[in-house]
Amino acid sequence: MPTSPNQKGVTPAMNTPPIVSAQEWEAAREQMLVKEKALIRARDAMAAERRRMPWMAVETRYAFDGPAGKVSLLDLFEGRHQLIVYRAFFEPGVHGWPEHACIGCSLGADQVSNLAHLNARDTTLVYASRAPQADIVRLKARMGWENIPWYTITDSFDADFGVDQWHGHNAFIRDGDRVFRTYLINSRGDEAMGTVWSYLDMTALGRQEVWEDSPEGYPQERPYKWWNWNESYVPNATADPKWVQVSDAGEAAFRKRDAGAKP
């Protein structure tokens, strides 16, 4: 049986699951798949409830320091309709300062995927800390986080949005110049963040696809069609016809497979 040494150097035997045939393994996996699909459906239902959360008007004019100087919360949207702000702990008093940010926040930053896909869904992600910009620029270069817009908190933003003592993602939406808070994910919820899907699922507009259960009038289009190479997104461009053909064929194959699996 496999073994793993403990802190005292002793290697106790692991209590491993049974060893089975390929057929038995497939049967066990099919049983797990039922539960996994139920979990995915529950996650989709939770995201649908988030899209129906009330909005909280943001009345305070928050200010941040950025690479080009002072900016407002509205500026952080970069012209898009949705904004996610992750409060990262990088400042005096945080373990690792000044060479590093918080270990947990740093692991989270390592998970952030290419933001071109999120931006294509009219959504901006930024990080915010209390460290000066010079230190943030140095940290981003050292850790390979140049793709993450990162601002300096200068006022009560972190305290007002529940992230002064602990990390968290706050989601906002704007209507013209008016900004509204729509959701907060923190603590263990932050573990799953980093993909375009985890970010979109916490926003007020969601993935903006036709299969989603969203309130009437929300922007929605067919899944897969808006996808593109991260260098090739063009605002308001029509989907690549070849990709539409390929993805349509894939969807048809999935539907046929699922239909054949039903008793």
Write the H/E string, N to C: HEEEHEHHEHEHEEHH
Shape: globular
Strand order of the largest sheet: 1-8-7-4-5-6-2-3
- Give the CATH architecture of one domain: 3-Layer(aba) Sandwich
Number of helical elements: 8
Q: What is the structural class?
A: alpha+beta
> Quick one: CATH class of one domain?
Alpha Beta
Structural commentary:
There is one protein chain. β2 and β3 form a beta hairpin. The two termini are 39 Å apart. This protein has helices at 22-50, 73-76, 103-111, 115-120, 133-143, 157-160, 196-201, 241-261, and strands at 56-57, 63-66, 69-72, 82-87, 123-129, 150-153, 168-175, 178-186. The mean pLDDT is 94. Among the domains are: 56-201, 3-Layer(aba) Sandwich (Glutaredoxin); 222-255, no CATH class. The longest helix is centred in the first third of the chain and has 29 residues, at 22-50. It has 263 residues and is an alpha+beta fold. The protein has an 8-stranded mixed β-sheet with strand order 1-8-7-4-5-6-2-3. It has 8 helices and 8 strands, in the order αβββαβααβαβαββαα.
